[in-house]
């Protein structure tokens, strides 16, 4: 087993913090924040794999997979992933698949926490304070809005990068020595699948107004399906998308096809 000694510094982690700020500048529907996440880690990956173009290309490609998280907490995931990439660069026996598994497992829980606290609470509080002063003609209104919302955000960006890297390094050393890495990876993958299942039920809404029978005895097909399993139609649609993606169907065609099929089904009263 070959090992090397490539070490990230505090300067590297600070650089990752600065590069985490434009996280959503390249957001899009197919993979959302994946380019921002890759940009955040690019300098670190260049330092770790710069002497091997194939490993550098593989690392960059690895982080071009789907990523979405509350921006202020994305640097925390970045810090943990940076520590894992450091381990991978120094140990050829490191399981690279664990990097994306950990990233996927952290996205959902941290997004739930971040969206609730930062977007659902802090942003509303900042708007309330700023608006109340601005309506009185007070110049402090917009200033306080920007300060109340952005100062905690910037602090979370910075502390997330630093603490994420520290936690990742210490945590990985402990679980590797204790032999718990395989169990932890299984638990992380399971959590990721559960989060995807929950998101499917919450974000993919498919219903039908069709009925079975006529007159007062008619039964709504949607009620029957919900009686079998709530969200059954949504799950079926997601299963169809999964199969199409397995067959390498372009996401652009899926979006266009979904729009066209939705219009036709709505027009004929198949979907509501």
TrEMBL record:
UniProt record, GO biological process: phosphoenolpyruvate-dependent sugar phosphotransferase system
Residue ranges of the TM segments: 113-133, 139-156, 184-204, 224-244, 251-270
Keywords: Membrane, Transmembrane, Transmembrane helix
InterPro entries: GatZ_KbaZ_carbometab, PTS_IID_man
Protein's UniProt keywords contain Kinase: no
PROSITE patterns reported for this sequence: PTS_EIID
This protein's GO CC annotations: plasma membrane
Keyword Cytoplasm appears in the UniProt entry: no
Name the record gives this protein: PTS system mannose/fructose/sorbose family transporter subunit IID
Organism: Agathobaculum faecis
């Amino acid at each position: 087993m070959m090992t090397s000694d490539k070490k990230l510094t505090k300067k590297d982690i600070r650089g990752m913090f600065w590069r985490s700020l434009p996280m959503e500048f390249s957001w899009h529907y197919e993979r959302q924040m994946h380019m921002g996440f890759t940009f955040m880690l690019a300098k670190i990956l260049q330092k770790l794999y710069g002497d091997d173009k194939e490993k550098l290309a593989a690392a960059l490609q690895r982080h071009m997979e789907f990523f979405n998280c509350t921006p202020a907490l994305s640097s925390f995931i970045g810090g943990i992933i940076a520590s894992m990439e450091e381990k991978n660069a120094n140990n050829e026996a490191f399981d690279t698949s664990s990097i994306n598994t950990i990233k996927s497992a952290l996205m959902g829980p941290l997004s739930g926490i971040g969206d609730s606290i930062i977007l659902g609470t802090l942003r509303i509080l900042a708007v309330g304070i700023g608006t109340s002063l601005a309506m009185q003609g007070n110049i402090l209104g917009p200033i306080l809005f920007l300060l109340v919302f952005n100062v905690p955000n910037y602090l979370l960006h910075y502390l997330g990068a630093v603490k994420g890297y520290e936690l990742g390094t210490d945590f990985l050393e402990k679980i590797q020595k204790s032999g718990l890495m395989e169990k932890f990876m299984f638990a992380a993958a399971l959590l990721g699948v559960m989060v995807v299942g929950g998101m499917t039920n919450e974000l993919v809404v498919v219903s039908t107004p069709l009925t079975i029978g006529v007159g007062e005895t008619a039964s709504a097909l949607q009620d029957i399906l919900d009686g079998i399993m709530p969200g059954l139609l949504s799950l079926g649609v997601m299963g169809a998308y999964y199969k199409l993606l397995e067959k390498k169907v372009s996401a652009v065609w899926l979006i266009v096809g979904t729009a066209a099929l939705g219009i036709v089904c709505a027009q004929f009263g198949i979907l509501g």
